[in-house]
Amino acid sequence: MMAELEKGPLSDKNIVPTEDYIFSQIGDNRKYWDKIMTSVFNDYSNISGSWNFYNDGKQWLYKLVQKKKTILWLSVISGTFRVSFYFGDKAEPLIYNSDLPSVIKEGFRSAKRYGKIRPVTITISCETDADNVLKLVAVKSKMK
Asked: Which domains does the chain have, with CATH numbers?
């Protein structure tokens, strides 16, 4: 699913991502990483995350899960990071009735379907992007 996205700095299967390396790649956007991670781990129970190498996209991705449910996927790209969520149709009313920006709602509406799910992807470049990620975490955590 992630294959069409450009290659990031975490494309070497033999180099397991460390915090130091990740932060050296995302630079000043570390503050948004820290905000997202701190909020998620403080506000939700049964949350855990892990780095795994995925052969389909040929890169390391950070997968954040709540119990067995995947909340988000995170990829490091040059100078920043990208957060992706996958939602089924049941999420439509929650997304459309939220205070997310219309560009995110429209992106979800028109996103390519992968079976029964569609992605919402945010490339982090400002505080608003981090806030929108946290809103989507809230939507995802409400899903059954």
From this structure: 19-142 (3.90.1150)
Assign 3-class secondary structure to the chain. Answer: CCCCCCCCCCCCCCCCCCHHHHHHHHHHHHHHHHHHHHHHHHHCCCEEEEEEEECCCCEEEEEEEECCEEEEEEEEECCEEEEEEEEEHHHHHHHHCCCCCHHHHHHHHHCCCECCEEEEEEECCCHHHHHHHHHHHHHHHHCC
The predicted model scores a pTM of 0.91
Residue 50 to residues 4, 17, 34, 38, Cα–Cα distance (Å): 22, 10, 16, 15
Each residue of 57-79: pLDDT tens digit?
899 999 999 999 999 999 999 89
